[in-house]
């Protein structure tokens, strides 16, 4: 009974309904599995059926191919003889062609042997002719030497006779007047005899018609100037003085060349010298005709002429030869005395031994000293290639003799060069020439003020003592400089014009035709100027056109200080000279002369002297533009019209500096004695910030502004502002670009007198704040940053490493660093011009340049003195690198630093209570998402879903809450402490791809630049290799890529070094930025190490000097070139 009851209880405990449901689920699963199996079987069957069909098709294709092959085989078996015949014919044809080719080869070999025989015979004939020519030349040289000795003896006899006659004549006073009357004809007779000798020498050999006229014309002109000089010399001599007769030996037309080591002198000494006339007294030292001195003095310059084959008299040949090789140098044939620059040579070429910088061994190199620098090559034949090295000479360089008898040291600002000569004589020659160059650089005005602006410049033919040469001439201040070429750094010579006399020579009676000078195709025409410096012989200047003659005559006369006594220049310029005489008396009636006052009519002639008709026409167009600017009212619709007029007119003056004086004269004329009208004063206010007039025109401008300056009137306020602007421009230098639209609008819309800094622009920082900073038309970037640093509480850029950047006009993610010497207005103008060129027709003036002030260089030694503002901006900049993936952080560390930056940006996190309304939670969530967007690395958020972002924001909120109560400065200090643990903190990273022959095998990598050197990182930012700056040989752009050449120690024990060449593919803007950044670090590194300037081997691509440590690319805006090639305005 108990068992039955137990079974019943057990049966009642089983839930059959659940059991049934479970079994039904199992049945359903079995059915699903069976369905899947059936589906898979069906797919498998279909696949097998498809494969069977494909196999059947392949079998059919194979059967068809077998059938085709059987048919081909049958046809081939039916015609075997035909194929064999065709092959046999083809074989015969090839054999015949081979035989023909062999015959042609044999014939050509025979012709080659015949040619070799002919060439050998010709070479033998040439050698025989050369030997005969050599014998003939030797014979002629002996004959000439014999003639020289005979003439020398005859000269001595004639000198003795003249001395005897002189003594006799002095004993008879009545004969002195007769002698004085005969002096001038006697000198003229000498000139005629000299011309006869030269012409007879020319007729000894045939001349080409092309050179006949040129030579005879030059001989006549030289004789003319020689006679003129002798006549002047005769006129100033006292009748009782010794009879002075210029005398030159006949040996001077000899064809014997000088030795190769003879170095000649340049035209700066010949043309700057006064001719010493000989008294025909025997030489006290008794130099014999056979001595080397006599031979050198008797050498003709015709032996060095490569364009003609005739003799040229010594005083008709220009000593300013363009040849620079030693064998092309000859010694002067007359005795001269220096006027203003010594006769020492400033150029030299030759072999020297140079101590290697890497391997301490002497290497023989070909050195060329020219234009104040030394270039050296492996051999003379390599001068057409890039030099192996360069030594820049400056006044700070000096020379020290070495311990050896033939060694010396050239110590420059950057390095010490160890040099040795082949002999003591060569050593002394090099030291003498180098000392001459250093002396000229230390004392010459050009070397002291290289940025001096020339009043007038151009090509002129300079003639003195019969020597003529086409030279590049420039008038700077009161000194007339002349150069061999337009790009030369140092002049051949100079003429000081103070108290000199400048005149125009009347050549209307001259029978000569136009004289062609120097082989440059420059015609002197009939315009000749003569400059008579005080107590010096005259110098003649041959000018090509009347406009150039008038310009040179006026400016030379003004520089000489004699313009008031001569009627030179235009009527306007003459009135300025008269005002200068009365010291600009405000009550003088000259100020009210009609020429100097306002005129409604257009100009018929320019107000100033201009060197060409094109510039004269352009000056009249400038006046029309000024009239249009003045007569149109400044209203909203015409603002752009006035802006365009002002920009075009001032751009023409910048392109053609000759028009700058004219522009000021026109503006002063149109504002003088006129009813108050501000528009012309506004144009003058724009002009004084760009450039200033020269010399007495600048005096005239200052006097005029002083006469009108009055803070009580509107016009007087403009005059006061112009006075301030003139002083600022003279202090900071002239501008490079026309005024920007922003600058013009600021002047047009308000009087700049009321603001010491009439312009302003925002400067943005990395923490999304900005500071509006004022500036004027002459403010430089350095002055601008001083103002920024004072307001922001930061140190100087040279210490902090901060720099000013502009955005790119194209809108690309590029920035351009600015030089300290750049002017802010020039930067804005160039940026606007680039924007217009990139978007023609779409520029509306709504977009302006964006200036950003941020860190560019990072120095560990300067971290101790950081200010709070510097640390704050540096933290934001590092966080920008973190967000862009240029700083190695893990996900956890990225969240930590993001929380720190959130605390700095927003303060304590305000988390709502659980019972608060949902709007507060939504607001907090938005703040967290903004923090993630701004401070969290992008690469960690790319594949996150919304749920993952929500979870990430919760974790961020937790870490942020921990920082509750921390100040911003504490968070910034923690942030920078963590960031500085990375060894490459402060480095700038560039993405690059290595190219052959680079040994790096990575597909993509990072190049990191910091104060220690260039580090190569893999794409996970693990260091691969580091190249310190001491090992860098050269770097920079190479075609489309970046190149780095480094020297590394291969074997420390043996001291061997290897040179590695690394090439990386990068974007062009990044190549430029990387190159300039490395150059800045190298310049800072070399300047901070004591004595490093004598040891560095790096060829840094950057400017020199402390003011140019920041190598910038502000000149590299796209499409920044102006297309104005000639005078164009309207």
From TrEMBL:
- Which UniProt keywords are given for this protein, alphabetically ordered? Coiled coil, Membrane, Repeat, Transmembrane, Transmembrane helix
- SMART domains (alphabetical): B41, MyTH4, PH
Q: Give the UniProt entry's GO cellular component terms.
A: cytoskeleton
SUPFAM superfamilies per the UniProt record, alphabetical: PH domain-like, Second domain of FERM, Ubiquitin-like
Residue ranges occupied by any MyTH4 domain in the UniProt entry: 598-748
Cross-referenced InterPro entries: Band_41_domain, FERM/acyl-CoA-bd_prot_sf, FERM_2, FERM_central, FERM_domain, MyTH4_dom, MyTH4_dom_sf, PH-like_dom_sf
Keyword hit for Secreted: no
The domain of life is: Eukaryota
Outline the extent of the FERM domain.
759-1089
Annotated coiled-coil positions are: 38-111
Q: Which residues cross the membrane?
A: 178-203
Q: Where do the record's region annotations for Disordered lie?
A: 279-299
Specify the PH domain's residue ranges: 345-439, 453-561
Output this protein's name. Answer: Pleckstrin homology domain containing, family H (with MyTH4 domain) member 1
Q: Which organism is it from?
A: Cyprinus carpio (Common carp)
Q: What is the lineage of its organism?
A: Eukaryota, Metazoa, Chordata, Craniata, Vertebrata
């Amino acid at each position: 009974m108990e068992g039955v009851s137990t079974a019943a209880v057990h049966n009642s405990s089983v839930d059959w309904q659940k059991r049934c449901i479970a079994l039904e689920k199992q049945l359903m699963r079995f059915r699903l599995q069976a369905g899947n199996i059936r589906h898979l079987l069906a797919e498998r069957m279909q696949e097998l059926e498809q494969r069977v069909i494909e196999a059947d098709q392949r079998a059919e294709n194979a059967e068809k191919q077998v059938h085709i092959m059987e048919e081909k085989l049958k046809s081939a078996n039916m015609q075997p003889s035909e194929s064999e015949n065709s092959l046999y014919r083809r074989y015969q044809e090839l054999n015949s062609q081979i035989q023909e080719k062999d015959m042609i080869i044999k014939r050509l070999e025979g012709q080659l042997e015949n040619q070799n025989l002919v060439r050998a015979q010709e070479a033998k004939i040439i050698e025989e002719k050369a030997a005969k020519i050599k014998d003939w030349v030797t014979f002629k040289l002996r004959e000439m030497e014999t003639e020289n000795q005979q003439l020398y003896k005859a000269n001595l006899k004639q000198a003795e006779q003249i001395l005897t006659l002189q003594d006799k004549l002095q004993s008879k006073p009545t004969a002195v007047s007769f002698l004085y009357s005969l002096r001038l004809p006697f000198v003229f007779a000498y000139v005629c005899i000299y011309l006869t000798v030269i012409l007879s020498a020319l007729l000894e050999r045939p001349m080409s018609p092309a050179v006949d006229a040129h030579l005879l014309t030059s001989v006549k002109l030289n004789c003319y100037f020689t006679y003129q000089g002798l006549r002047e010399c005769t006129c100033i001599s006292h009748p009782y003085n010794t009879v002075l007769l210029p005398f030159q030996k006949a040996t001077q037309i000899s064809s014997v060349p000088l030795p190769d080591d003879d170095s000649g002198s340049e035209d700066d000494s010949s043309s700057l010298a006064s001719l010493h006339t000989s008294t025909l007294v025997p030489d006290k030292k008794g130099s014999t005709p056979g001595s080397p001195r006599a031979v050198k003095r008797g050498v003709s310059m015709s032996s060095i002429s490569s364009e003609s084959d005739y003799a040229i008299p010594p005083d008709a040949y220009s000593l300013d030869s363009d040849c620079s090789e030693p064998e092309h140098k000859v010694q002067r044939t007359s005795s001269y005395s220096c006027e203003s620059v010594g006769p020492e040579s400033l150029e030299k070429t030759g072999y020297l031994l140079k101590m290697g910088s890497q391997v301490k061994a002497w290497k023989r190199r070909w050195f060329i000293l020219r234009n104040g620098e030394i270039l050296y090559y492996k051999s003379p034949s390599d001068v057409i290639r890039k030099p192996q090295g360069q030594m820049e000479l400056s006044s700070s360089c000096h020379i020290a003799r070495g311990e050896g008898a033939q060694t010396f040291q050239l110590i420059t600002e950057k390095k010490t060069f160890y040099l040795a000569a082949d002999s003591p004589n060569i050593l002394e020659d090099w030291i003498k020439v180098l000392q001459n160059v250093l002396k000229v650089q230390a004392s010459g005005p050009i070397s002291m003020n290289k940025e001096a602006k020339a009043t007038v410049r151009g090509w002129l033919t300079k003639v003195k003592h019969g020597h003529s040469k086409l030279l590049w001439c420039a008038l700077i201040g009161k000194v007339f400089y002349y150069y061999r070429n337009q790009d030369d750094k140092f002049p051949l010579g100079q003429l000081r014009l103070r108290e000199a006399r400048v005149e125009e020579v009347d050549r209307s009676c001259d029978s000569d035709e136009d004289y062609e000078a120097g082989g440059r195709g420059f015609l002197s025409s009939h315009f000749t100027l003569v400059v008579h410096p005080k107590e010096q012989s005259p110098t003649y200047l041959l000018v090509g056109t009347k406009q150039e003659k008038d310009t040179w005559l006026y400016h030379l006369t003004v520089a000489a200080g004699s313009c008031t006594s001569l009627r030179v220049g235009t009527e306007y310029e003459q009135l300025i000279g008269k005002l200068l005489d009365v010291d600009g008396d405000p009550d003088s009636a000259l100020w009210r002369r009609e020429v100097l006052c306002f005129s409604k009519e257009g100009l018929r002639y320019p107000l100033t002297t201009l060197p060409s008709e094109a510039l004269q026409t352009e000056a009249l167009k400038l006046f029309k533009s000024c009239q249009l600017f003045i007569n149109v009212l400044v209203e909203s619709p015409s603002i752009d019209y006035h802006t365009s007029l002002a920009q075009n007119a001032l751009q023409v003056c910048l392109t053609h500096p000759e028009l700058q004086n004219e522009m000021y004269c026109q503006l002063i004329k149109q504002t003088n004695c006129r009813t108050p009208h501000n528009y012309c004063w506004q144009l003058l206010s724009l002009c004084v910030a760009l450039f200033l007039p020269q010399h007495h025109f600048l005096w005239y401008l200052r006097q005029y502004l002083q006469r009108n300056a009055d803070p009580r009137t509107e016009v007087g306020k403009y005059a006061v502002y112009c006075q301030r602007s003139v002083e600022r421009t003279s202090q900071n230098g002239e501008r490079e670009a026309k005024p920007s639209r922003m600058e013009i609008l600021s002047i047009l819309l308000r009087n700049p007198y009321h603001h010491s800094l009439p312009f302003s622009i925002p400067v943005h920082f990395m923490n999304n704040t900005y500071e509006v900073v004022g500036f004027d038309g002459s403010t430089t970037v350095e002055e601008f940053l001083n103002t920024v640093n004072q307001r922001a509480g930061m140190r100087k850029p040279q210490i902090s490493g901060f720099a000013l950047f502009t955005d790119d006009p194209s809108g690309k993610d590029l920035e351009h660093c600015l030089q300290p010497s750049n002017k802010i207005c020039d930067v804005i103008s160039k940026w606007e011009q680039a924007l217009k060129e990139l978007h023609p027709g779409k520029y509306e003036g709504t977009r302006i340049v964006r200036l950003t002030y941020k860190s560019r260089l990072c120095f560990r030694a300067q971290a101790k003195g950081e200010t709070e503002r510097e640390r704050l901006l540096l933290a934001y900049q590092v966080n920008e690198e973190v967000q862009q993936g240029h700083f190695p952080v893990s996900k956890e560390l990225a969240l930590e630093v993001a929380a720190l930056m959130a605390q700095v940006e927003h303060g304590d996190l305000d988390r709502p209570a659980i019972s608060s309304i949902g709007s507060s939670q939504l607001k907090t969530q938005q703040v967290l998402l903004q923090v993630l967007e701004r401070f969290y690395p992008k690469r960690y958020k790319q594949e996150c879903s919304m749920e993952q972002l929500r979870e990430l924001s919760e974790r961020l909120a937790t870490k942020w809450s921990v920082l509750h109560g921390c100040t911003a400065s504490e968070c910034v200090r923690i942030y920078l402490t963590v960031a500085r643990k990375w060894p490459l903190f402060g480095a700038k990273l560039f993405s690059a791809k290595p190219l052959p022959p680079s040994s790096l095998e990575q597909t993509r990598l990072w190049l990191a630049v910091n104060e220690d050197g260039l580090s190569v990182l893999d794409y996970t930012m693990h260091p691969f290799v580091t190249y310190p700056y001491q090992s860098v040989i050269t770097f920079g752009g190479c075609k489309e890529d970046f190149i780095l050449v480094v020297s590394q120690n291969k074997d420390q024990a043996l001291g061997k070094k290897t040179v590695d060449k690394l090439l990386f593919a990068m974007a062009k803007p990044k190549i430029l930025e990387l190159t300039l950044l490395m150059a800045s670090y190298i310049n800072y590194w070399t300047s901070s190490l004591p004595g490093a300037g004598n040891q560095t081997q790096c060829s840094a691509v950057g400017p020199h000097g402390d003011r140019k440590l920041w190598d910038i690319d502000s000149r590299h805006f796209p499409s920044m070139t102006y297309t104005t090639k000639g005078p164009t305005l309207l």
